[in-house]
């Protein structure tokens, strides 16, 4: 019977447990009269009590509530957030900004400003003034106050220094008002934090901040209101079913927390590789990619013979002492040494050889046979070289590396360990030089992201010459030693039996020290910690190319006017203005239906990309252009638009977005027909180029337009390459035709522009670049009339009102040799700079067809740089041409970043170079979707790197240096530095270093500090061109913001990211959704506050007007003037009579 009783009791208990669990899973909410004691929940009780006055009761600000309740604010916020989880209360975040006085400012409030204290002391001293020591004794605060006060007195001309006596004498007769003290006192005495920011004008605040007397502090607090489950007292729900509940039956009335049956369990840690092992694996991969073979390094115990003697290290060397080396007690000596080799090493030490006299000391076998823990992996290197010299068949060139543990008897600190991993590499070959060693080291370090290196002569017993390797540490802001290197001495190589003309170069580095560089840490332990925290990957993950290819899909919708807020972070209030960006957006012709009342209706509706191959372009560059415009409203306090009574949208911290196609004549024609009409470039796009530049991706390719001149159906002006805003005008540019003029607010198309009649012919071939002269506030355009024998360059220059400058009527012309295909340029104070690659022209094809892919080919030879004197300068239009040194790549399709003139007259320009002759693959994948794999992308894209070119016009010397060999795109500078000397370059960067990958992250080069910082998004996110946006009131070169359109290929959406220009590596401070998937674009601009600061209402009205005008079939065209008309030109005739032409 006992077993049966036990079974019955077990059944009853299990029944109650099961019923209780069911009760709990249903989430029945039974009230419990037992609540937490006041001692345990006093703050919560106070909060709930404050809300008990009725449904509308609130706590306006938790900060004021905590002060009145004499409770720490953090405790109040914590309790509020705890109550939110059970819906007792609802929270609304509040942000309060106010100024806080520094300790120096508090001292000024008490004693007066430093300059007034100094002045009062000088006035008291009379006309004789005071010497330095006397002044320090007379002024409250002593020398520290005098240092600041004297400088400000001299600056304000309140005092002067007597030249004869050197004493400081007052320059005014009476005391002056202490404005600084008065301002600080008013700040300190403000009635509230809010008033604290209103008692002074903006200039006064700025002056105090410059002196670091005040700082603007942001405090976050919350407004609290009743939640949907509000109750005067909180009831705690039980989280677990206990034995006591089952025994007492209290589980029936106890409220339980609901089970979340969909939650995942806690991840089980399965162990991880040590961060330094991950680094070691990455280094091994890089060295193998460089052609090195790994040496066997599994022996930690070595003899002194291999560790020291074979390296020609004297037996009396201090490193062989016990305080530097760990010697083995058992077995203490080795019994395995090659005797013949031993004798040759002994002879070299005692008597010398190969031009050396040796050490002239007795070589002791007892010292050579001592066992030790190896102090470097060079012990293995010497054994490998000995085997290499004595291999059957004789010597062969070799590259060896090792990454393994070494041991030193060191005192441990941040940069020294007694046990660490060492990277060692050596190259043995005929007639190697020091240049080979430096090149090998630079290549290795560049692959791991360390680009700033220096080499310092050094001494090593077994290398000559020897060099220490230093790298610039971006966190420590200094050069730090990271390795040693040199060429092995003949005294080491000769005993091995290597041929006389064989040289061996070698280098060794410490992995933990290099990890400190890679992870941005200053010591070995913090490097390891950084790696363990998630930084162990030296590079971002490879790009998701399927996600990238989704960025080449037609945008079937436009955005007329939309007000958006950030979904991440907050937009800074001093970011005000409008950002424009242009790019191809329609890849299937006729994918946007014409207005309802159009005379011509398309025969077929828009179709998704890929469904009708006959409607698709063969290269993204042939896609119709669209413009994205994003206006930043700052704090919303923008003047303009409407009367005072007109209601305004709340635009603080928001942007107004527009996205609209450029209504080119070709776009309108294909839109009405619903089919592709322009096929002139298709044969060029399917040609397999030998240079990788002709059909380049994603930057505009070298072949940009058909070579048949004039207005014709072979040359389709897509107006998709660059958006330019200057002189209150917005233009979109394309290489090969006139720009289009757009309304800057609504983005509606006004028509083609001949730049106010300066461009005389409608069929002129204009370039897709406009360069800014920031010092004179001018803009320059160019065009090239291309002919096979010679071409003509036309350079146009306009003032700030977009009028041709008076000098030379704003136009200079120059003859260029041969067929000149030039797609970019830069300007300095006096010159315009162009680079012309040398082309081979097929005369017959050029005469008959003029297809770029069949008519011309890029020659593998030196390009020409043309320096053209600008209008208004001496010898305007005069051109000097020089050859750029040829290094295997012809410097074609350069993308200029900026140019300037140095003090000695040297013209310096930075540019992104397409190294077309070094492309990958033997075929081009032009099938849509484009670039869906890395192989497909690399078949269409060239290697791109950042270079600096220097041109000496007087001496006729041109030089060039690679700034970075990593894959970069879209280089820009702060537009205020355009045409002037610049320090910083911002660019889009590929995520795999030197490997060819699409633009993805943002990188910043400091050309003076020789440093670089980068930020990379997720593998499926891709940034376009970075654009520098000036910050209100800031004149520094990197004090503003970086804007870029980020395409999310996984979700097929786009957003604008905002980064701080002086802290790119920290990533975006704000992300703003655009609302549609904007395809990968090209170039844009940022129009700052005073030029493009429109209200949302102004933009909305203009956008509605544009939509209404288009729906009525009106299109305004600019005809050789700055005014709009309805002229009928050749393009318009084509639109109506295209089938007959």
From TrEMBL:
Keyword Glycosyltransferase among record annotations: no
Annotated residues for binding of Fe cation: 1083
Cofactor note: Binds 1 Fe(2+) ion per subunit.
Keywords, ordered alphabetically: Aminoacyl-tRNA synthetase, ATP-binding, Iron, Ligase, Magnesium, Metal-binding, Nucleotide-binding, Oxidoreductase, Protein biosynthesis
InterPro entries: aa-tRNA-synth_II (IPR006195), aa-tRNA-synth_II/BPL/LPL (IPR045864), Carotenoid_Oase (IPR004294), Phe-tRNA-synth_IIc_asu (IPR004529), Phenylalanyl-tRNA_Synthase (IPR002319), PheRS_DBD3 (IPR040725)
Keyword set includes Magnesium: yes
Subcellular location: Cytoplasm
Matches recorded under NCBIfam families: pheS, PRK04172.1
Cofactor(s) required for function per UniProt: Fe(2+)
Name of the protein this chain belongs to: Aminoacyl-transfer RNA synthetases class-II family profile domain-containing protein
GO CC field: cytoplasm
CDD domains the UniProt entry points to: PheRS_alpha_core (cd00496)
Similarity remark: Belongs to the carotenoid oxygenase family.
């Amino acid at each position: 019977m006992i077993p049966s009783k036990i079974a019955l009791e077990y059944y009853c208990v299990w029944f109650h447990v099961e019923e209780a669990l069911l009760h709990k899973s249903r989430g029945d909410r039974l009230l419990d009269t037992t609540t937490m004691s006041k001692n345990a929940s006093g703050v919560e009780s106070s909060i709930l009590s404050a809300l008990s006055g009725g449904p509308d009761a609130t706590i306006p600000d938790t900060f004021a509530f905590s002060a009145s309740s004499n409770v720490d604010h953090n405790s109040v916020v914590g309790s509020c957030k705890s109550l939110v989880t059970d819906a007792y209360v609802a929270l609304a975040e509040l942000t309060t900004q106010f100024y806080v006085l520094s300790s120096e400012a508090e001292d000024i409030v008490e004693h007066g400003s430093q300059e007034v204290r100094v002045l009062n002391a000088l006035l008291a001293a009379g006309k004789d003034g005071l010497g330095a020591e006397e002044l320090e004794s007379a002024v409250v605060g002593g020398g520290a106050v005098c240092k600041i006060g004297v400088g400000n007195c001299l600056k304000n001309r309140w005092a002067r220094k007597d030249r004869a006596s050197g004493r400081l004498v007052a320059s005014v007769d009476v005391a002056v008002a202490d404005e600084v003290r008065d301002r600080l006192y008013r700040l300190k005495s403000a009635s509230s934090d809010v008033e604290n920011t209103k008692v002074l004008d903006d200039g006064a605040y700025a002056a105090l901040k410059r002196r670091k007397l005040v700082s603007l502090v942001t405090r976050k607090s919350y407004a609290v209101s009743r939640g949907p489950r509000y109750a005067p007292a909180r009831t705690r729900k039980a989280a677990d079913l206990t034995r006591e509940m089952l025994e007492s039956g209290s589980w029936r009335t106890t409220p339980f927390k609901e089970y979340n049956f969909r939650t995942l369990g806690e991840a089980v840690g399965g162990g991880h590789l040590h961060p330094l092992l991950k680094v070691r694996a990455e280094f091994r991969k890089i060295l193998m990619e460089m052609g090195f073979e790994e040496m066997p390094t599994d022996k930690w115990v070595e003899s002194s013979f291999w560790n020291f003697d074979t390296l020609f290290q004297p037996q009396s060397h201090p490193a062989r002492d016990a305080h530097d080396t760990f010697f083995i007690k058992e077995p203490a000596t080795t019994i395995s040494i090659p005797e013949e080799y031993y004798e040759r090493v002994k002879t070299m030490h005692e008597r010398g050889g190969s031009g050396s006299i040796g050490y002239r000391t007795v070589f002791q076998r007892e010292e050579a046979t001592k066992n030790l823990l190896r102090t470097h992996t060079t012990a293995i290197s010497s054994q490998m070289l000995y085997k290499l010299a004595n291999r059957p068949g004789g010597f062969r060139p070799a590259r060896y590396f090792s990454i393994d543990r070494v041991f030193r008897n060191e005192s441990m600190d941040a940069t020294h360990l007694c046990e660490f991993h060492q990277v060692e590499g050596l190259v043995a070959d005929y007639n190697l030089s020091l240049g080979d060693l430096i090149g090998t080291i630079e290549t290795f370090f560049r692959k791991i992201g360390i680009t700033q290196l220096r080499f310092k002569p050094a001494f090593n017993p077994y290398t000559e010459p020897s060099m220490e390797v230093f790298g610039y540490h971006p966190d420590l802001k200094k050069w730090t030693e990271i390795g040693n290197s040199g060429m092995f001495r003949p005294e080491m190589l000769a005993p091995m039996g290597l041929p006389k003309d064989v040289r061996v170069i070698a280098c060794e580095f410490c992995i933990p020290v290099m990890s400190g560089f890679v992870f941005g840490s200053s010591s070995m332990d913090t490097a390891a910690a950084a790696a363990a925290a998630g930084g162990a990957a030296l590079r971002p993950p490879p790009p998701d190319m399927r996600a990238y290819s989704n960025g080449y899909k037609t945008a079937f919708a436009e955005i007329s006017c939309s007000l958006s807020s950030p979904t991440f972070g907050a937009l800074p209030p001093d970011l005000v203005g409008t950002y424009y960006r242009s790019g191809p957006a329609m890849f299937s012709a006729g994918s946007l239906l014409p207005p309802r009342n159009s005379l011509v209706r398309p025969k077929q509706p828009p179709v998704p990309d890929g469904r009708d191959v006959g409607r698709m372009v063969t290269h993204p560059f042939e896609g119709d252009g669209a413009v994205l415009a994003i206006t930043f409203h700052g704090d919303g306090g923008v003047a303009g638009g409407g009367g005072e009574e007109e209601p305004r949208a709340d635009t603080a911290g928001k942007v107004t977005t527009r996205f609209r196609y450029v209504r080119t004549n070709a776009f309108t024609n294909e839109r009405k027909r619903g089919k592709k009409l322009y096929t002139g470039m298709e044969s060029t796009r399917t040609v397999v180029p030998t240079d990788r530049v002709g059909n380049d991706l994603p930057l505009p390719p070298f072949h940009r337009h058909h070579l048949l001149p004039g207005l014709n159906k072979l040359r389709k002006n897509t107006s998709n390459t660059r958006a330019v805003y200057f002189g209150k005008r917005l233009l979109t540019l394309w290489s090969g035709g006139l720009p289009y003029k757009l309304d800057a607010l609504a983005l509606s198309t006004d028509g083609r522009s001949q730049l106010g009649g300066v461009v005389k012919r409608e069929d002129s071939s204009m370039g897709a670049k406009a360069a800014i002269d920031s010092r004179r506030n001018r803009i320059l355009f160019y065009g090239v009339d291309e002919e096979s024998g010679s071409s003509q360059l036309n350079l146009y220059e306009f003032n700030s009102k977009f009028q041709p400058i008076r000098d030379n009527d704003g136009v200079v012309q120059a003859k260029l040799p041969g067929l000149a295909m030039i797609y970019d340029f830069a300007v300095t104070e006096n010159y315009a700079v162009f680079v012309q690659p040398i082309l081979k022209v097929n005369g017959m094809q050029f005469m008959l067809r003029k297809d770029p892919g069949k008519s011309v080919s890029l020659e593998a030879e030196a390009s020409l740089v043309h320096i053209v004197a600008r209008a208004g300068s001496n010898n305007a239009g005069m051109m000097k041409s020089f050859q750029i040194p040829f290094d295997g790549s012809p410097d074609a399709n350069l993308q200029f970043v900026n140019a300037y003139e140095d003090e000695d007259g040297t013209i310096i320009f930075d540019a992104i170079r397409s190294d077309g002759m070094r492309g990958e693959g033997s075929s081009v994948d032009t099938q849509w979707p484009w670039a869906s794999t890395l192989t497909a992308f690399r078949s269409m894209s060239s290697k791109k790197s950042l270079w600096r070119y220097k041109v000496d016009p007087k001496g006729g010397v041109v030089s060039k240096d690679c700034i970075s060999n990593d894959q970069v795109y879209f280089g820009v500078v702060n537009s205020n530095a355009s045409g002037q000397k610049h320090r910083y370059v911002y660019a889009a960067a590929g995520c795999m270093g030197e490997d060819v990958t699409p633009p993805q992250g943002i990188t910043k080069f400091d050309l003076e500090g020789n440093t670089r910082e980068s930020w990379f998004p997720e593998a499926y996110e891709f940034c376009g061109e970075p654009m520098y946006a000036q910050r209100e009131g800031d004149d520094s070169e990197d004090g503003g913001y970086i804007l870029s359109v980020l395409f999310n290929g996984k979700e097929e959406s786009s957003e604008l990211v905002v980064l701080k220009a002086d802290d790119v590596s920290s990533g975006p401070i704000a992300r703003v959704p655009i609302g549609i998937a904007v395809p990968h674009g090209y170039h844009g601009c940022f129009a700052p506050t005073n030029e493009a600061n429109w209200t949302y209402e102004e933009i909305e009205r203009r956008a509605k007007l544009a939509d209404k005008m288009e729906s009525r079939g009106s299109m305004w065209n600019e005809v050789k003037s700055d005014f709009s008309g309805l002229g009928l030109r050749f393009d318009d005739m084509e639109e109506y009579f295209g089938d007959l032409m």
